[in-house]
Predict the 3D structure of the following.
Amino acid sequence: MPLNFRFRNGAHGYGLVTKTLHWLTVALLAAQFTVGYLMDDERGRGRGRGRGHGSGHGSGHGRGGDDFDRLDLLPVHVTLGVLILLVATARVAWRLGTDLPPWDERLGPVQRRIVHRTEQVLLASLFLVPGTGLALLLSGEDDLLWLHVSAHVLFFTALAAHLAMVLGKRLLPRML
Protein backbone atom coordinates (compact mmCIF):
# COMPACT_ATOMS: atom_id res chain seq x y z
CA MET A 1 0.00 0.00 0.00
CA PRO A 2 1.71 3.23 -1.11
CA LEU A 3 1.96 6.14 1.28
CA ASN A 4 0.45 9.46 0.23
CA PHE A 5 3.24 11.39 1.90
CA ARG A 6 7.00 11.30 1.66
CA PHE A 7 9.39 11.30 4.58
CA ARG A 8 12.35 12.84 2.76
CA ASN A 9 12.69 16.10 0.88
CA GLY A 10 12.67 15.87 -2.89
CA ALA A 11 11.34 17.35 -6.10
CA HIS A 12 7.87 17.17 -4.50
CA GLY A 13 8.95 19.62 -1.78
CA TYR A 14 9.75 19.30 1.90
CA GLY A 15 9.29 15.86 3.40
CA LEU A 16 7.35 14.86 6.49
CA VAL A 17 10.43 14.73 8.74
CA THR A 18 11.58 18.24 7.78
CA LYS A 19 8.07 19.64 8.25
CA THR A 20 7.66 17.90 11.61
CA LEU A 21 11.01 19.18 12.87
CA HIS A 22 10.15 22.70 11.64
CA TRP A 23 6.77 22.89 13.38
CA LEU A 24 8.06 21.16 16.53
CA THR A 25 10.72 23.88 16.67
CA VAL A 26 8.08 26.59 16.25
CA ALA A 27 5.98 25.11 19.07
CA LEU A 28 8.96 24.75 21.41
CA LEU A 29 10.11 28.31 20.71
CA ALA A 30 6.63 29.71 21.30
CA ALA A 31 6.44 27.88 24.62
CA GLN A 32 10.00 28.84 25.56
CA PHE A 33 9.60 32.56 24.92
CA THR A 34 6.22 32.59 26.66
CA VAL A 35 7.64 30.93 29.77
CA GLY A 36 10.78 33.08 29.64
CA TYR A 37 8.86 36.34 29.52
CA LEU A 38 6.44 35.16 32.22
CA MET A 39 9.48 34.65 34.45
CA ASP A 40 10.23 38.38 34.38
CA ASP A 41 8.81 40.60 37.09
CA GLU A 42 7.81 44.25 36.65
CA ARG A 43 11.41 45.45 36.51
CA GLY A 44 12.43 42.96 33.83
CA ARG A 45 14.15 40.85 36.44
CA GLY A 46 13.08 37.97 38.61
CA ARG A 47 14.60 34.98 36.90
CA GLY A 48 15.88 33.72 40.21
CA ARG A 49 19.63 34.10 39.67
CA GLY A 50 20.91 35.40 42.98
CA ARG A 51 18.95 38.62 43.47
CA GLY A 52 17.86 37.91 46.99
CA HIS A 53 14.40 37.31 48.41
CA GLY A 54 11.29 38.63 46.71
CA SER A 55 12.80 39.07 43.26
CA GLY A 56 10.50 36.60 41.63
CA HIS A 57 12.78 33.56 41.59
CA GLY A 58 11.58 32.58 38.15
CA SER A 59 8.01 32.07 39.27
CA GLY A 60 6.26 34.78 37.30
CA HIS A 61 5.69 37.29 40.10
CA GLY A 62 4.73 40.77 39.01
CA ARG A 63 3.10 40.10 35.63
CA GLY A 64 -0.51 40.80 36.46
CA GLY A 65 -1.14 38.92 39.66
CA ASP A 66 -0.32 35.80 41.52
CA ASP A 67 -1.20 33.35 38.77
CA PHE A 68 2.15 31.62 38.99
CA ASP A 69 2.88 31.92 42.72
CA ARG A 70 3.09 28.18 43.26
CA LEU A 71 4.57 27.22 39.92
CA ASP A 72 8.31 27.51 39.49
CA LEU A 73 8.86 28.26 35.82
CA LEU A 74 12.65 28.06 35.81
CA PRO A 75 12.77 24.24 35.50
CA VAL A 76 10.20 24.43 32.68
CA HIS A 77 12.28 27.11 30.95
CA VAL A 78 15.47 25.07 31.26
CA THR A 79 13.75 21.88 30.08
CA LEU A 80 12.36 23.66 27.02
CA GLY A 81 15.84 25.06 26.30
CA VAL A 82 17.36 21.59 26.42
CA LEU A 83 14.58 20.24 24.18
CA ILE A 84 15.27 23.04 21.69
CA LEU A 85 18.96 22.09 21.68
CA LEU A 86 18.03 18.44 21.03
CA VAL A 87 15.62 19.30 18.21
CA ALA A 88 18.20 21.69 16.71
CA THR A 89 20.75 18.88 16.76
CA ALA A 90 18.23 16.56 15.08
CA ARG A 91 17.56 19.24 12.45
CA VAL A 92 21.26 19.57 11.65
CA ALA A 93 21.68 15.79 11.47
CA TRP A 94 18.61 15.46 9.24
CA ARG A 95 19.75 18.33 7.02
CA LEU A 96 23.14 16.66 6.53
CA GLY A 97 21.40 13.44 5.48
CA THR A 98 18.83 14.80 3.04
CA ASP A 99 18.81 17.24 0.18
CA LEU A 100 16.67 20.35 0.10
CA PRO A 101 13.82 20.56 -2.38
CA PRO A 102 14.27 22.79 -5.42
CA TRP A 103 13.98 26.53 -4.87
CA ASP A 104 10.54 28.03 -5.33
CA GLU A 105 10.35 29.67 -8.76
CA ARG A 106 9.07 32.90 -7.21
CA LEU A 107 12.44 33.54 -5.56
CA GLY A 108 15.15 35.31 -7.50
CA PRO A 109 18.89 34.91 -6.83
CA VAL A 110 19.07 37.72 -4.24
CA GLN A 111 15.98 36.45 -2.43
CA ARG A 112 17.43 32.94 -2.38
CA ARG A 113 20.59 34.24 -0.72
CA ILE A 114 18.49 36.13 1.83
CA VAL A 115 16.42 33.01 2.58
CA HIS A 116 19.56 30.88 2.87
CA ARG A 117 21.35 33.29 5.23
CA THR A 118 18.24 33.89 7.30
CA GLU A 119 17.73 30.16 7.77
CA GLN A 120 21.38 29.78 8.78
CA VAL A 121 20.99 32.50 11.43
CA LEU A 122 17.75 30.96 12.69
CA LEU A 123 19.38 27.54 12.99
CA ALA A 124 22.41 29.00 14.77
CA SER A 125 20.01 30.83 17.10
CA LEU A 126 18.50 27.50 18.11
CA PHE A 127 21.86 26.79 19.73
CA LEU A 128 22.82 30.33 20.72
CA VAL A 129 19.70 31.40 22.63
CA PRO A 130 19.42 28.29 24.86
CA GLY A 131 23.22 28.07 25.16
CA THR A 132 23.53 31.63 26.45
CA GLY A 133 20.55 31.00 28.71
CA LEU A 134 22.22 27.96 30.26
CA ALA A 135 25.48 29.90 30.63
CA LEU A 136 23.55 32.70 32.34
CA LEU A 137 21.89 30.24 34.69
CA LEU A 138 25.14 28.45 35.53
CA SER A 139 26.95 31.73 36.19
CA GLY A 140 24.45 32.60 38.92
CA GLU A 141 24.72 36.30 38.08
CA ASP A 142 23.51 38.73 35.43
CA ASP A 143 26.95 39.32 33.88
CA LEU A 144 25.94 37.37 30.77
CA LEU A 145 22.42 38.77 30.48
CA TRP A 146 23.51 41.10 27.66
CA LEU A 147 24.65 38.09 25.65
CA HIS A 148 21.35 36.24 26.14
CA VAL A 149 19.38 39.36 25.21
CA SER A 150 21.61 39.91 22.17
CA ALA A 151 20.91 36.34 21.07
CA HIS A 152 17.18 37.11 21.35
CA VAL A 153 17.59 40.23 19.21
CA LEU A 154 19.50 38.25 16.59
CA PHE A 155 16.82 35.55 16.60
CA PHE A 156 13.88 37.94 16.32
CA THR A 157 15.59 39.94 13.57
CA ALA A 158 16.17 36.78 11.53
CA LEU A 159 12.64 35.58 12.29
CA ALA A 160 11.18 38.86 11.03
CA ALA A 161 13.16 38.56 7.79
CA HIS A 162 12.13 34.91 7.43
CA LEU A 163 8.45 35.64 7.99
CA ALA A 164 8.52 38.64 5.67
CA MET A 165 9.89 36.48 2.87
CA VAL A 166 7.64 33.49 3.54
CA LEU A 167 4.46 35.52 3.88
CA GLY A 168 5.36 38.12 1.26
CA LYS A 169 6.08 35.48 -1.37
CA ARG A 170 3.29 33.19 -0.15
CA LEU A 171 5.67 30.33 0.51
CA LEU A 172 3.95 28.98 3.63
CA PRO A 173 2.17 26.10 1.81
CA ARG A 174 5.60 24.57 1.09
CA MET A 175 5.96 23.82 4.80
CA LEU A 176 2.40 22.62 5.45
In short: The helical segments are 16-38, 74-97, 109-139, 145-168. The radius of gyration is 19 Å. The chain is about 60% helix and 0% strand. Residues 46-64 have pLDDT under 50 and may be disordered.
